[in-house]
Write a structure and sequence with these properties.
Two copies of one chain form a homodimer.
Chain A lengths: L1 H6 L20 H15 L11 H8 L3 H13 L3 E4 L3 E4 L8 E3 L1 H8 L4 E12 L2 H6 L7 E11 L2 E11 L8 H14 L8 E10 L2 H6 L7 E10 L5 E10 L5 E6 L7
Antiparallel strand pairs in A: 1-2, 4-5, 5-6, 6-9, 7-8, 8-9
Chain A binds a DNA duplex through helix 4.
Chain lengths: 264, 264
DNA sequence: AAGTGGTCTAGACCACTAT
DNA sequence: TAGTGGTCTAGACCACTTT
């Protein structure tokens, strides 16, 4: 009974609830996101539970409706809650199909230019066969450029790249572009890109002898293949190709639910 | 010169610019997102270009600052623009390291229950070896549960799953859980989950003889392995295991930049 | 000093759900 | 009918960049 009387004022005594610190460099809406996340992580609100209504949160934390709304929208985007209009905001259980993983690993590779080198293995102009013509939406026998490159990390081959480009006699291949700039820009985004959008597919594969030789390992090893096609501003394909990476050199990581390391 | 005089009033004549339709079921902020996306796609604003300032957009589309802000925040989250405080909002070139993949494919598999069956291959209680004890943060020789399951799609083996669970004598293994509910809940999110968060790793691998037999194909084929570890609300690991899927049955797709099919 | 993005307020009105 | 989330306004103030 003692406990219940304490509980009646639990916001001050039991759970030591945080409030918004107006002096903080952290915006109020982020503070509220973190407060709610923490409560969900602690199990104060379990999957399926309804969070306090927006007006209750306004009252409790002395925030305007728009600010509370903003915080809830963030939880919504992060897949942690579901909102049902007219009913409430509910804690969502972690779901595999929501899992997101990124190619962010690639960013790290290209981050320090010093350690990353691009070696051009081959550049040649050839005539498109049926497959290439199909992918690049051009005609068979049309001239295309084939570029094969090897990406070295600390001198160690890391990524093998081959791509077919539309041959444009008016836009000669710049030597420098082949070296580092175009790939670097593709991954980091510093340089100007010549394409508007791209589609990517990741598949599991097994290294061919040629790939294994280039990547300095033995054939028949597992590998990732990342096929890509890029389109220009008129939505015409300009580049089709793929990256190949040793399976033992690349991992994709992701989390669901509330990871220990918060994003904020 | 004729052209320039037309251009001077281009907002009305040349580019037929859209305005916000107040009667539409589409919220104003989404309409503005789509207008801006369309202009970026058309090349009105190229990578590196500055978008009109927020106050200009307010004026042009007769919207309040908060609404314009909301639209720009969406473009920001989608990686299409960068904002620099005090300077402006700039169109971002497509960058590989921003590419996002999801396990959304799995949702489709589980969507219609009728076509998906789970076959339990084995359930046994055994003593943890060093690796298992390490992953589940328990002691060697401690009892753990091993569950091996096969997921069938239209009777065809699609996914092989094995996991080690902490053995809890007070929570007996429910027969039904093993069948479909727990996996179904994991992917779709309908059932209650017993864990708070999880970490996942995707790697490329090659099917062992056993895996190949189970998945109804030949060994040495490429495959995806998805390793997972789930934690309960006290942040203790409760499940460690992995999914194995034939490489020819699973693809991960993604886009960068402005895909033809808009999200709105 | 002028302009830009970033945060926040204190309301309003609406569509929807629960009872 | 009362309560909930969803959208939107018309301002305010701040930190920052540009000129």
């Amino acid at each position: 009974m003692n406990k219940s009387s304490i509980n009646s004022n639990k916001s001050n005594i039991i759970s030591q609830e945080k409030s918004i610190n107006r002096q903080s460099f952290e915006p109020a809406y982020i503070q509220l996101v973190n407060i709610l996340k923490e409560q969900i992580a602690k199990g104060v609100y379990l999957p399926g539970d309804r969070l306090p209504s927006e007006s209750e949160l306004c009252e409790k934390y002395q925030l305007s409706p728009m600010t509370v709304r903003r915080s809830i929208n963030i939880l919504l985007n992060q897949g942690l809650v579901t909102t049902i209009q007219g009913s409430g905001t509910y804690v969502k259980p972690p779901v595999l199909s929501n899992v997101i993983f990124t190619l962010g690993e690639f960013y790290n590779i290209f981050k320090d230019k010093e350690r990353t080198k691009v070696r051009v293995l081959e550049v040649l102009i050839l005539k498109a066969d049926e497959i290439i013509a199909n992918k690049l939406e051009t005609n068979i026998e049309e001239r295309v450029i084939l570029i094969r490159r090897l990406l070295l990390r600390d001198g160690d081959p890391f990524l093998y790249h081959m791509e077919y480009l539309i041959y444009d006699p008016y836009r000669p291949i710049v030597e420098a572009e082949l070296e580092i700039i175009s790939l670097h820009g593709l991954f980091i985004g510093t340089s100007e890109t010549k394409f508007k959008r791209g589609d990517l597919t990741i598949e599991a594969s097994i290294l061919t002898k040629e790939e294994a030789d280039l990547l300095n390992t033995i054939p028949m090893q597992p590998a990732f293949r990342i096929e890509h096609i890029f389109f220009d501003f008129e939505d015409r394909p300009v580049s089709w190709g793929r990256f190949t990476c040793r399976g033992d050199r690349l991992r994709f990581n992701a989390s669901i639910g509330l990871s220990k390391r918060q994003t904020f």
